[in-house]
Write a structure and sequence with these properties.
The radius of gyration is 32 Å and the shape is globular. The chain folds into six domains: 124 residues, Agglutinin, subunit A (Orthogonal Prism); 137 residues, Bulb-type lectin domain (Agglutinin, subunit A, Orthogonal Prism); 141 residues, Hepatocyte Growth Factor, CATH 3.50.4.10; 33 residues; 94 residues, 2-Layer Sandwich (Phosphorylase Kinase, domain 1), CATH 3.30.200; 188 residues, Transferase(Phosphotransferase), domain 1 (Orthogonal Bundle). A six-stranded mixed β-sheet has the order 40-44-45-43-42-41. With 827 residues, it is of the alpha+beta class. The chain is 18% helix and 29% strand.
Length: 827
């Protein structure tokens, strides 16, 4: 027998004809006489009239449903005093929010909600910028007559023609379903990102080709990964998920049959209990109930009817990270909820998100340090990462499995199954980690002996609790290795010295000729060659404090190549030092986000440097010209600069501090890629050196505070400069302005934090609609920049972490005030 789905709308309707003891409205929905009386009562309760508005403020006005069960309006965001969510919540249980507008993103105090005839609900910030509206979602006949908060928890906009809904919250669920609500094949339920962050998270309930499934999703792009739970019985013919008023939930099939999701013995009455189904932030779908007559009583809370799946940590075929983040381990805690933990020598990428991914506390480039014996294996019982295999060996023993991983620089972990004598080797990152007594396998995790130092004040470097020491044998081996390497280096050095002197005697003409395919081999030019290449130094393309840059053309192998020739000012006392620094530093580098160094000239008092020519000029030309680059191009430039700095700080043969990161020192190539240039002030760090003492280097506005405190500096000075530059990229304005309007600040860093703190970051990009329409990314970039400009260098993230945050791999926690002091406003 087919099943009829009846959904009641609690608003006045035009009577059409009677049927039995009730009446039927023109939409064919049966309404009892009791319900009719209730709807007449609703005309003056829970109604939001056209032209009315709600204001986001403390103790602001909200709309109550007729029976006082639900409220609609601005609800204070969790853990915040000045941010608000446009939402629906239980009036008697105000901490339980069941629906949110604006993708769950909070709005600042002073924001308004207006109801108009043609646009419906319009949410605007204090500056009048529209953040969200129902304009494009309105459907049906007529204009908006009024809004209505129903006792079902459904807020609807009612048509002026037939009293039918033009828009309703039930059609656009967030993380919760309520009795009388249905989920169609075009809709989905998406979890919040964390307990107190209601923006859209990683988990989703929806129909996938007729199957009702739970699946993970990529937060940044919305891409759906494979399902981790499929509800039985649909057979790819599911049509609608129905949550009846009685509390029953079932899948309505295309042939009219139904598949029940709740056992009859577990049903709770909607008359006695508040009911809801919520997809929690950890991916568990839970049916809840709350006694209606116990609201406000101490100790009374939501109780669970059932949850799905029973064990979300169970291995699945999902290619995503699983219930927990990458490299994390999931175990089942109380109430069948997952508990996520990082393995030894790993720490959370975002310390505020215990369900997020974990990163090694050490250099995980095992191949890069494969020969130095700096790694060991940690055994983890009853643990498995079922995915990320790249090798499987069977039959194998435990010792063979361990040895195979230790001797393989690609191996980050090994899993051994004693029952099948099988060994699996895995690369990082590890996914779908699970620890459970039912897991009979043994895991070995490869970690470094040197696991870093404690830094409890930095949220990007959590405390390390495990320390491993090298044994005496290993130390002896390493000591012997160092001696041998020293002898070899000495021999090589003498050989280089001999060859160099020989080549000097032979003269310039016998040196290796320049080849554009070998930029990593610097070439020594004669002055006449560069004078001819630049046509007598006539085409000037740039000028700085150290000299002038000219465009030139060099011919090699029958082909002509454009170059930029930097001619240092001969009257500048530091010309020799700047020249030597630039040759020594950039001669060690080779990266797509660094300007390619081709060669040099050193004859008598002439000092010239030759680089690949960049046709699009500097980032300063790009940002501060009349034509603003697109939002996508700016994001690409910011990511490119970050990757270039990451290479200098962590991936180059010798660690390099650039010391002068600013838009004038970053060039843009033909493909709009950022290329870091001008290494004249750069500082080389010797092996294992983290700090250096040096005189102030760089440009005002981009200098980190420690330069002025006579303290040793580290690569974190580049991080600070990058933060300032990232704000310039976001706003397309210089970091210091003397002539500004009243709503801006002369110092960009101060203004940016003020805008972030007040929830008005839209002001930073003004009328840039591309950025305004990508507000989630805009907020992410602003937060990253604010972390980079922290006065305390220990609080600034590394460029590796910055790159991960820019690319969406790592979450971005809320940044504190960048300065160490605060100013109290007068009472």
């Amino acid at each position: 027998m087919g099943v009829e789905v009846v959904q009641r709308w609690w608003w006045p309707v035009r009577e059409n004809k009677t049927k039995g003891n009730g009446r039927e409205n023109e939409r064919g929905i049966i309404v009892t006489s009791t319900e009719m009386r209730k709807m007449v009562y609703c005309e003056n309760h829970g109604k939001f009239s056209v032209g009315q508005s709600l204001l986001a403020k403390n103790n602001g006005t909200s709309l109550l449903s007729p029976a006082g069960d639900f409220a609609f309006g601005f609800h204070q965001a969790p853990n915040s005093t000045d941010l608000y969510l446009l939402s629906v919540w239980y009036a008697a249980i105000p901490d339980t929010i069941v629906w949110c507008a604006n993708g769950g993103k909070p709005v600042p105090q002073g924001s308004t909600l207006n109801l108009t005839v043609n646009e419906g609900l319009v949410l605007s910030n204090p500056q009048g910028t529209v953040l969200w509206s129902t304009t494009d979602a309105l459907s049906g006949d007529g204009a908006v007559s009024y809004g209505f908060m129903n006792d079902t928890g459904n807020f609807a906009l009612i048509s002026s023609v037939n009293a039918a809904p033009l828009w309703q919250t039930f059609a656009y669920p967030t993380d919760t379903l309520l009795p009388t609500q249905t989920l169609e094949t075009v809709s989905n339920v998406i979890s919040r990102i964390s307990k107190n962050n209601l923006t859209e998270g990683r988990f989703q309930l929806h129909f996938d080709n007729g199957d009702l499934v739970l699946n993970t999703r990529d937060v940044a792009s919305g891409y759906d990964y494979n399902s981790y739970y499929t509800f039985d019985g649909t057979g790819s013919t599911g049509k609608t998920l129905v949550y009846s008023e009685s509390g029953d939930m079932f899948i309505l099939m295309q042939n009219g049959s139904r598949v029940d999701l709740i056992q009859s013995g577990e049903l709770k009455s909607g008359k006695d209990y508040y009911l809801r189904v919520t997809l929690e932030f950890d991916g568990v779908l839970i049916w809840y109930y709350y006694p209606r007559n116990s609201t406000g009583e101490k100790g009374v809370g939501w109780s669970k009817i059932q949850s799905i799946p029973n064990n979300i940590c169970s291995p699945n075929s999902n290619i995503d990270s699983g219930a927990c983040g990458y490299n994390s381990i999931c175990s089942l805690g109380n109430d069948e909820r997952p508990v996520c933990q990082c393995p030894p020598n790993y720490s959370l990428m975002d310390p505020t998100n215990s369900y997020g991914s974990c990163e090694p506390d050490f250099n995980s480039d095992f191949c890069g340090k494969f020969e130095d014996g700096g790694y060991t294996l940690i055994q983890l019982q009853n643990t498995d990462w079922p995915l990320a295999d790249y090798a499987q060996m069977s039959p194998f023993t435990q010792n063979q499995c361990k040895a195979s991983c230790m001797n393989d620089c690609f191996c980050g972990a090994a899993i051994f199954d004693d029952g099948s004598s099988t060994c699996w080797k895995k690369k990082l990152p590890l996914s779908n980690g699970k620890q459970d007594s039912t897991v009979s396998r043994i895991a070995w995790l490869k970690v470094s002996h040197d696991n870093g130092t404690n830094n409890p004040s930095n949220p990007f470097i959590p405390p390390r609790n495990v320390e491993y020491k090298l044994n005496a044998v290993t130390k002896g081996i390493l000591g012997g290795s160092v001696c041998v390497n020293f002898i070899l280096l000495s021999v090589v050095g003498l050989g280089i010295f001999f060859v160099y002197n020989t080549s000097t005697i032979r003269g310039y003409n016998e040196r290796k000729r320049f080849s554009t395919s070998e930029y990593n081999t610097t070439h020594s030019f004669t002055y006449k060659e560069l004078e001819s290449a630049t046509n007598g130094f006539r085409d000037e393309i740039g000028r700085g404090s150290f000299g002038v840059v000219y465009k030139g053309n060099i011919t090699t192998g029958g082909n002509q190549y454009s170059v930029a020739v930097k001619r240092l000012d001969r009257t500048f006392k530091g010309a020799d030092k700047e020249f030597t620094a630039e040759v020594n530093v950039i001669g060690l580098t080779h990266h797509k986000n660094l300007v390619r160094f081709i060669g040099y000239c050193k004859e008598e008092d002439e000092r010239l440097l030759v680089y690949e020519y960049m046709s699009n000029g500097t980032v300063a030309d790009y940002l501060f010209s009349d034509k603003r680059p697109s939002w996508v191009e700016r994001i690409q430039i910011g990511q490119g600069i970050a990757r270039g700095l990451l290479y200098l700080h962590e991936e180059c043969t010798t660690q390099i501090i650039h010391c002068d990161i600013k838009p004038q020192n970053v060039l843009v190539d033909d493909h709009h890629n950022a290329r870091i240039a001008d290494f004249g002030l750069a500082k080389l760090l010797v092996l294992n050196q983290n700090y250096t003492n040096t005189a102030v280097r760089g440009t005002k506005g981009y200098l980190a505070p420690e330069w002025f405190k006579n303290k040793p500096v580290s690569v974190k000075v580049d991080v600070y400069s990058f933060g300032v530059l990232l704000l310039e990229i976001i706003c397309c304005r210089k970091c210091v302005l003397m002539d500004v309007s009243t709503d801006e600040c002369a110092i960009l860093t101060d203004w940016a934090f003020d805008c972030y703190q007040s929830g008005t970051i839209d002001c930073l990009v003004k009328d840039d609609m591309e950025a305004l329409n990508d507000r989630l990314q805009l907020e992410r970039l602003v937060k990253i920049a604010l972390w980079c400009i922290q006065e305390n260098p220990e609080l600034r993230p590394t460029m590796k972490r910055v790159t991960q945050m820019l690319e969406g791999v790592a979450d971005v926690p809320s940044p504190p005030c960048p300065t160490s002091f605060s100013v109290s406003l007068p009472a």
